[in-house]
Amino acid sequence: MSPRPADRARYDRATAPFDAPLAIVDLEAFDANADDLVRRAGGKPVRVASKSVRCRALLERVLARRGFAGVMSYTLAESLWLARSGFADVLLAYPSADRAGYAELAADPELAAAVTVLVDDPAQLDLIDAARAGGAEVIRVCLELDTSLKLLGGRIRIGARRSPLHSPADLAALARAVARRPGFRVVGIMAYEGHVAGVGDAVAGRPLRSRAVRLMQAAARRELAERRAAAVAAVRAVVPDLEFVNGGGTGSVQHTAAEDAVTEIAAGSGLYVPTLFDHYTSFRGRPAALFAQPVVRRPGVGVVTVLGGGYPASGAAGADRSPVPYLPEGLRYDPQEGAGEVQTPLLGPAADDLLIGDKVWFRHAKAGELCERFDRLHLVEGDTVTATVPTYRGEGHTFL
Q1: Residue 243 to residue 142: CA distance in whole angstroms
Q2: What's the rounded Cα separation, in Å, for the pair 81 and 63?
């Protein structure tokens, strides 16, 4: 039996006692993906991006593995919750305007020691100071370098619109501003190259686009490696005891790890391997996170209807943001309806072999966003569910 039908048989047997809709994580695939991230990181620690996992039990599982250290969180409320739950090294990777959260952080020495916040503007320091409410703890600060590739004097910009700090001088100037300010300490630099780490370079049926992406990414890697090294040197001249320099992402682990200036790698999506990470020449992961919807109708020959399934991923709207019918093979959306809010028709010869109540397995386009739809994950080993664990949502938390 080929791998995909064999996987379907395993997943169906494992989840036979459970009604769909449901979500699973295949632990063998999850662990193999974790090992691959460590291999590609080449000895540098991998910091786990929590937005791509959104399940405490699985964060704990991967952090217990050799080669992983620390969490990269996405909101301040999540950061504080994780720190209170025993995660000792939490880097908040996005600026926050959570005044109540900053008041908690500034008032609690254990939280202040565990959580590092992101800053790319002196106005963010003002907001934190105004929110302290008497809390006097020193706030650990990470500065973010803009990694975008700028061409033709800045008239062309490739990359996410994140930090305004693009040059080494920009970053060093903010480091000096933080160093002069009581109650703050610069401990790290983050530089996430999303246009390299998060954009596939081997899009099926698009050879010219794929080649253009590879050329762009090669140029972006060269430019960023030089600029990132200069930025780190400039900040170290102000903060000699800088603790970490974070870079990378699932799609660029090995390239970023090769830079001497980088001390740790960020990755998370590579643990679940959603469909947006199918199109890379640099690595191949194993799909580990899937969800199942039940067949509830058989409208005609070559058609079944499953309950729900309209779980689009964030980002620019497009077909690549929809979940993909994965098992059984050979199913596709009706172009008139797509993935539905309450029901989803699926077309293809495989539909005729499905009965009412059968499960159709899907892969999400992104990683952790799947967990915003389900309150628990069934963990599958072989053809058995060995544990069922809550997602963030299942623990009563939807941080965004």
Answers
A1: 10
A2: 17
Q: Choose among 320, 294, 187: nearest CA to 242.
A: 187
Instruction: Measure the CA–CA gap between 162 and 170, rounded to whole angstroms.
Output: 14
d(CA 360, CA 273) in angstroms, rounded, equals: 19
In a 10 Å sphere around its CB, with 0-12 CB exposed, 13-18 middle and 19+ buried, how is residue 388 labelled? middle
Nearest partner of 147 among 73, 243, 221, 40, judged by Cα: 221
Helices 56-63 and 27-41 pack at an angle, to 10 degrees, of 50
Q: How far apart are CA 118 and CA 136, in angstroms?
A: 18
CB 135 within 8 A of CB 101: no
Q: How far apart are CA 378 and CA 157, in angstroms?
A: 42
Which single residue is written with the structure tokens 């020495």?
109
What is the separation, in whole angstroms, between the first and last Cα of the chain?
41
pLDDT category of residue 121 using cuts at 50, 70 and 90: very high
CA 312 to chain centre: 16
Q: Residue 204: is its pLDDT beyond 80?
A: no
Strand pairing partners for 244? Answer: 188
Listed in sequence order, the DSSP H helices in the chain are 3-14, 27-41, 56-63, 76-84, 99-107, 109-114, 122-131, 168-179, 194-197, 207-238, 253-257, 269-272
Average per-residue pLDDT for the chain = 93
Distance, C-alpha 23 to centroid of its chain? 18
For residue 237, give both structure tokens.
Answer: 């001249």
- Res 1 pLDDT > 50: no
Q: Does 197 have pLDDT greater than 60?
A: no
Buried b (16+ CB within 10 A) or exposed e, 13-52: ebbeeeebbbbbbbbebbbebbebbbebbeebbbbbbbbb
pTM: 0.93
Q: Please state, in angstroms and as integers, the Cα–Cα distance from residue 272 to each residue in 37, 187, 333, 372, 385, following that order.
A: 12, 30, 23, 15, 17
CA distance 140 to 356: 55
Per-residue pLDDT band at 156 (split at 50, 70, 90)? confident
